[in-house]
Amino acid sequence: MSTTARTVGVGLISVGWMGQLHSRAYRDVPIVYPELGITPKLVIAADTAPSRVEFAQNVLGFAEGTTDYREVLAHPDVEVVSICAPNFLHAEIGIAAAKAGKHFWIEKPVGRSYSETAAIEDAATEAGVITSIGYNYRHAPAVEHARTLIADGRLGRITNVRASFFSGYANEPNGALSWRFDRELAGSGVLADLFSHASDLCQYVVGPIAEINALTSTVYTERPKLEMGSGTHFAVIENGDMGPVENEDYAAALVRFGSEGPGSGAVGTIEASRVIVGPECGYQIEVYGTEGSVKWDFERMNELKVCLGRANAEQGYTTVNASPKHGDYSRFQPGPGNALGFDDLKTIEAKKFLLAVSGGPQENSNVHDAVSAAAIVTAAEVSAASGQWQKLDEIAGTTASRTA
Predict the structure, then answer these.
(1) Residue limits of the GFO/IDH/MocA-like oxidoreductase domain (predicted)?
(2) Residue 73: CA atoms inside 13 Å, Cβ hemisphere, count?
C-alpha cells in the first residue's frame, strides 16, 4: 500500500470545529501511516472571522491565512482542500474547487438538495479531481469487521436491516434558531444531517437502497432567533424573539435494498431524530441474516455484537472488542480494549483521501456516494409528502457494497 514519498499542500476553508478536526487529521497521517510517505503541508486557511484565521496560523500551524476562500483555491502550493463551511456554501465552494483543479474533502450534506449535489458531482467529474466525503462512521474498525462478515456470507442471506441515528443536540426547546433550522441555508433538517449518515452506512455495509417510503415530523416548530455567526446550534436563548423551524426534527423510513450487493432483496427501517431525549449520539445499525446477525452502536463504537449460526442463538450475542485484526485499529492501539475515538475516524478518512490523491487505491467515499445520499433524502421528502413509495435510480461510481 506504499506510495512514492511526497508532500501534499493543504488548504482549509472554514476553521470551526470540523475544520480544526480536519487539520489535526492531516497532521496525524504521517505519524499513524509513516509507510505511505505522504506528508501533508498546511499551506493556507480561510475563515470570515479574523480570530479564526489567526488561530489557524498560530495554533493549527497553517503558513498563511485569509478571510477570502478564493485565495485558498488560487494558491499554487495547494493541492487538496478541506471544505468545512456551512451547508449553504458547499455548492459554491465545491464547484469552485473543482474548477480550480483542487482535490477536495467536503463535509456532508454536500449540497442542500439533490440538484446542488449533482452539480458538484458534474464539476468534479469534468475536472477529474479526487473527492472525499465526511462519512467518517464507516471507518470504525467494528463496522469494517461487520462489513467483512456480511460480504463473506457469514450471516447467510441478509433478510432485514435496522438503522437509526438519534441525537439530542436540539432537544432543548429554547435551543437557538441556527442556520441548521433554515431551509434556504441548510436544506432539509435531520434527513440531511443524520438520516443521510445512517443510509450511507446501510449502503456501505449491505448494498444500494432501491426504494423508500418515509414520514417526517417537526417537534419544535419555533425557536429563538440567533444572529448568524454569533453562536452555534447548541446555544440556548431564554425569552428570545421566536422564528419558524423550516425543516424536520424526526424522520423514519421503510427501505428495500436492490439486487446488487450482499443485501440483495433485503428490507429494513431507518430512523433519525435531533430532538430525542436520552441518546447523545445513538447511531446504530443491526443486520440480520438467515445464519446470524450483527449489531453496532457508535456510543460503544469499539464493540460489535455478533451471533453466527442458528445453533448459537441460545447463547445470544458475543461481544467482539475491536482489535488489531479489524480495519485500521492496529494503527492506533496495540491491543483490544484500548478504544479508538471520533477523531481517529477522521484520521483514517484523511489517510484514504490522501492515498487516493497520491495514486493509491481509492478506498475513500466520494461525491457519487454524496449524490446517492442526496437522492435518498429527496425521495424521503417526496414520500413523506405523498405517502407513496419512491424508487431510486442506481448512482454510478458509488462505494456501496456490491460484493456477493
Answers:
(1) 144-294
(2) 19
Residue 142 CB partners (closer than 8 Å, separation 6+): 296, 301, 302, 303, 304, 320, 322, 326, 327
Inter-helix orientation angle 114-127/87-99, to 10°: 20
Which 3 state secondary structure label does DSSP give 244?
strand
Render pLDDT for 74-90 as a digit per residue (tens, 0 to 9): 999 999 999 999 889 99
CA neighbor of 7 nearest in space, from 358, 257, 368: 358
Reported CATH class of domain 6-136: alpha beta
Residue 60 carries which side chain, given as an amino acid letter? L
Domain 141-336+366-391 has CATH 3.30.360.10: yes
Tell me the C-alpha distance between 108 and 341, whole Å.
Answer: 20
Q: In this structure, what C-alpha cell is assigned to residue 149?
A: 462478515
Domain ranges of the chain: 6-136, 141-336+366-391
SS percent in the chain: helix, strand, coil, step 5: 35, 25, 40
**Tens digits of per-residue pLDDT, 247-267?**
999 999 999 999 888 999 999
Task: Note the pTM of the prediction, 2 decimals.
Answer: 0.93
Examine domains 6-136 and 141-336+366-391 and report if their fold is the same: no
